[in-house]
Amino acid sequence: MAVESRQPDAFAIIFVFLGAATVTLLGQLVFTNKVLKELPADDILIFIAWAIDVAQTGTAAAWMKATWYGYHSSDVPDFTVEQQVHQAKIMLVQGLLYNPVLGLVKWSIIVFLMRLDDKRKIIKWTLRILFAVNLGHLISVFFGVLLQCSPVHMYWDHYKTDQVVDGQVVNDNYSCIDQASFSLSTAAISVSTDIAILLVPIAIMVNLQLPLRRKLAVIIVLSLSWAVAVVGAIRIYFFVNFWYGRFPDPNWSLWNTLSGVENNVAIMVSCAPSIKAVITWYMPRFFGTSNARSNTTPYHYPGTYQLSTRPRADSEGGVRGKGSSTEAIVRSESLDGSGEFGANSETTEPRTTQGRAT
């Protein structure tokens, strides 16, 4: 009788998502480099995250192969001590690589949002706090995973000295943190920061004077981290079931592929603004933009927007003085390739009735 296996499905999931993230990232890097002739800091962070993600995906595949992941537990052979030590080493490396990918992607998104340069203090401080929380989470989780057992090497070497007493594994040579509490709490913090980052672009864009269709399009593009939050929440659900023994056969389930899915979805989401720019450049009317190709520079990478003032021309052709009223205008490097946040955004030029203003 043939042994049933879902391992090929697990491999397909992690490598298909890695491939999609790779294509998305390459598209962003090629397009922005072609137009900007440089690599912005947020793109560099995404590239580093992707490189770590490649290593994490390879490590996950090696772990699946070593542990017979995707097979029914009844079909998995008993492992030798040496095999268990090898599996634990791979698992530790996988844990060390997983969180930095998400942390770097969030760092990239926060840097991107900071470059929009919203002048409101609440936005500035929110981004600063998110930056600090994300950086602290990245560092603390990395060292938490690395140092979860004392001494460290006992994370994998404990199999050499474990003893079974009354059906319980006993080993006085080391101690470890509560792995269930650690993994669930860190995952919850990660999803919370996903949600917080999701809300910031909405707050930034809501006050801009844009046609409703374009405003919604830009908000959706800049708020796609909801997809990462959803995958993260599903991952927590399966983690709870795993740690509290609610899986009838955890080795047969494909839930462990969610870590790779989450990382790769995060990379794809972080490239969303550039995806929108590419679509607008080749299909100008897709987001309601008709002049995407009319600018000297076809794609203005999202940089800053601000409320500016410019003297208005009076009815006699002169420009009003410093003390006169001014109009607030929105000037921006475009998020949609149109050269401004909205094609209908108005810039106030001096208006004359009798020749040019002087």
SSE inventory with pairings:
Elements: H1 7-36, H2 41-67, H3 81-115, H4 121-146, E1 149-150, H5 154-157, E2 163-165, E3 168-170, E4 175-176, H6 179-205, H7 212-222, H8 225-243, H9 258-270, H10 272-282, E5 305-311, E6 326-332
Antiparallel strand pairs: 1-4, 2-3, 5-6
Written overview of the protein:
With 358 residues, the chain is mainly alpha-helical. The protein has two domains: 264 residues, Rhopdopsin 7-helix transmembrane proteins; 65 residues, no CATH class. The protein has ten helices and six strands, in the order H-H-H-H-E-H-E-E-E-H-H-H-H-H-E-E. The strands form three sheets. It has a two-stranded antiparallel ribbon. Strands 2-3 form a two-stranded antiparallel sheet. Helix 4 runs antiparallel to helix 6, helix 6 runs antiparallel to helix 7 and helix 8 runs antiparallel to helix 9. The longest helix has 35 residues. The C terminus is likely disordered. Belongs to the SAT4 family.
Spatial order of the strands in the main sheet? 1-4
CA-atom Rg in angstroms: 26 Å
What's the story with the biggest beta sheet? Answer: 2 strands, antiparallel
Could you give the count of β-strands?
6
What percentage of amino acids are in beta strands?
5-15%
Supply the number of helical segments.
10
> Which structural class matches the secondary elements?
mainly alpha
CATH C-level category of the largest domain: Mainly Alpha
Q: Which residue ranges are poorly predicted, with pLDDT under 50 across at least 5 consecutive positions? A: 286-358
Coarse morphology: elongated
Q: Could you give the order of the helices and strands?
A: HHHHEHEEEHHHHHEE
How would you describe the oligomerization state of the chains in this entry? single chain
Average pLDDT across residues?
77
What is the straight-line distance between the termini? Answer: 92 Å
Determine the fraction of residues in helical runs and give it as a percent range.
Answer: 55-70%
CATH topology of the largest domain: Rhopdopsin 7-helix transmembrane proteins
- Total domains: 2
